[in-house]
Design a protein that fits this description.
Elements lengths: L2 E4 L1 H5 L4 H11 L5 H17 L4 H8 L1 H4 L3 H19 L2 H12 L3 E9 H11 L3 E10 L2 E7 L6 H14 L7 E4 L5 H4 L4 E5 L3 H9 L4 E2 L3
Parallel strand pairs: 1-2, 1-5, 2-3, 5-6, 6-7
Antiparallel strand pairs: 3-4
Length: 217
């Protein structure tokens, strides 16, 4: 089976689920609105320009998971899916996933956004598997720390290689769809890189290397 790999935020979704989750926490009054929103927007701007300190960001993003029960977090996430993620869904993204599914390809999302946020989204999109940053989960609760390598920039390549070794799958004929310059290490690894509604740096790189550029908007 050919591997069809997809970034999630601003690729399959018309928005960033990580930033949206932070905004949801603010809007629901779960976190201190002013300080949390400022930090959430600050880290999102860093991500967009390719300068994000992933360790600093994850210490911020995973902290709320450690402050509430799994049951409460799951209830909030159901609300988040209905209020926020449903409006980010893209019909063209669903068609692209269906095209690869109908071809018999294996559909894999690789995202820097943590698995608590993205696992239910991947399930709703009907993909076969997801690699995401894993929040540490011990004795039924999140600790606020990261388990393993964050799934970001070169970390996506590392995590994918671990997954390939564990599953026995291959990158022969593989696709990767992404919007972000942060994903250049993985885009350069696959056989068929595709820039999707790309940021300026990725768009220029795609143009220079004759990569396809598409829009799912």
């Amino acid at each position: 089976m050919t591997l069809a790999i997809f970034d999630l935020d601003n690729t399959l979704l018309a928005g960033d689920s990580d930033h949206a989750w932070g905004q949801f926490l603010v809007d629901q009054g779960i976190v201190d609105s002013e300080t949390y929103q400022q930090a959430n927007d600050y880290f999102f701007a860093q991500y967009q320009n390719g300068s994000l300190d992933i360790d600093e960001f994850l210490a911020f993003a995973l902290k709320p998971l450690a402050e509430h029960s799994k049951q409460q977090l799951d209830a909030w996430h159901q609300q988040f899916m209905q209020q926020c993620i449903s409006t980010m869904r893209l019909p063209k993204a669903d068609k692209l996933l269906k095209k690869h599914r109908d071809q018999g390809d294996f559909l894999l999302i690789i995202t820097a956004t943590n698995l608590f946020v993205t696992g239910p989204i991947a399930k709703a999109l009907g993909v076969d598997d997801i690699l995401a940053t894993n929040p540490e989960f011990i004795d039924g609760a999140y600790t606020g720390k990261v388990a393993g390598t964050p799934c970001f920039q070169a970390g996506k390549v590392e995590r994918l290689k671990q997954w390939l070794a564990a599953t026995g799958r291959s990158l022969a004929g593989s696709y990767f769809y992404s919007d972000s310059c942060n994903d250049l290490p993985l885009l350069e690894l696959v056989d068929y890189p595709v820039a999707v509604d790309a940021d300026e740096r990725l768009s220029q790189h795609a143009q220079d290397n004759h990569w396809p550029q598409i829009s799912l908007r």
